[in-house]
Design goal:
Layout (H helix, E strand, L loop, with lengths): L1 H6 L1 H19 L1 H17 L5 H38 L1
Length: 89
């Protein structure tokens, strides 16, 4: 018996979580249905950007990350120099 449990523990755990999930879904069925309906309504309002807009926004993000990384590099380098100065005293 325990060898079976040890061998199939992952599947047994998954099964327990599925049963718990189904039980919770049954208890909160009306709230779940309302939530799914609300999500579908919101999804209809979403507008996806064109390819050109997506590429432009991606470049903005890459540039912002590069500027932030450069700034942090300079600050880290400066603070390391100040720390080296204090340790030499």
């Amino acid at each position: 018996m325990w060898e079976f449990v040890a061998k199939h523990l992952a599947w047994l755990t998954f099964g327990v979580f599925v049963v718990i999930g189904v039980a919770i879904a049954g208890v909160y069925r009306t709230r779940l249905i309302t939530y799914v309906q609300d999500v579908r309504q919101e999804w209809k309002r979403v507008s996806t950007p064109s390819r050109e807009e997506a590429v432009a926004h991606t470049w903005v993000v890459i540039l912002a990350v590069a500027i932030t990384a450069g700034y942090l590099f300079v600050v880290d380098w400066g603070l390391a120099g100040v720390t080296r100065l204090f340790y030499r005293l």
